[in-house]
Amino acid sequence: MFRHLFAIFTVVGLLGCSSTPPVAELSKQEITTQHPQLSSSDAYQDYFYQWQGVPYKYGGTSKNGVDCSAFTQNAFDVLHRLSLPRTTEYQATSGTQIALANAKKGDLIFFKTSVKVRHVGVYIGNREFMHASTSKGVIISSLNNPYWKKAFWQVRRVL
């Protein structure tokens, strides 16, 4: 019985959002310096700073643990008073698909990290996005990273 439950939880965990390479926790000043598209008066920067390092938790929706789609859902609620669907699957059908070259701060960015697993983040400009990673929690990642470049799927504008 324990083996079956362990196997089920392992599979569910693997079907959650994807992980990324390690990134150190940054101060507000370091965030602005390393990610100039997040100016010191930027609401996205303030939001990221409040959530930075919150651990990943499949199905989680709070600062005790959050998954990728709950992170984007909360970001849009707080930053834009816009209600997004709860899951990555349904968020991936929201708004209008646009080309990556036309992406703007606040667009949703999606990845196919395996055959059945999808991941979502919030594009912040300069080929970067904030998201909840399984390995490092809430972080900023770059589309120049080979992992994310290969996994990139689509950008959707919902604003």
How would you briefly describe this protein structure?
With 159 residues, the chain is of the alpha+beta class. It contains 6 helices and 8 strands, in the order αααββααβββββαβ.
Question: What key attributes describe this structure?
Answer:
159 residues, alpha+beta, six-stranded antiparallel sheet, two-stranded antiparallel ribbon, 6 helices, globular
Number of helices: 6
Largest sheet: 6 strands, antiparallel
General form? globular
Structural class: alpha+beta
Order of helices and strands: HHHEEHHEEEEEHE
Strand content: 15-25%
Extended strand count: 8
- State the distance separating the first and last CA atoms: 47 Å
| Oligomeric form | single chain
Low-confidence segments: 1-16, 18-24
Spatially, the strands of the biggest sheet line up as 3-8-4-5-6-7
Average the pLDDT over all residues and give the rounded result. Answer: 84
Cα Rg: 15 Å
**Share of helical residues:** 25-40%
SSE topology sketch:
Blueprint: H1 2-14, H2 28-34, H3 43-51, E1 61-62, E2 65-66, H4 68-80, H5 88-91, E3 96-98, E4 108-112, E5 118-125, E6 128-133, E7 137-142, H6 146-151, E8 152-157
Antiparallel strand pairs: 1-2, 3-8, 4-5, 4-8, 5-6, 6-7
Describe the structure.
With 159 residues, the protein is α+β, with helices and mostly antiparallel strands. Helix content is 33%, strand content 24%. It has 6 helices and 8 strands, in the order H-H-H-E-E-H-H-E-E-E-E-E-H-E. The strands form 2 sheets. Strands 3-8-4-5-6-7 form a 6-stranded antiparallel sheet. The longest helix has 13 residues, at 2-14. The radius of gyration is 15 Å and the shape is globular. The N and C termini lie far apart (47 Å). Mean pLDDT is 84; it is low at 1-16 and 18-24.
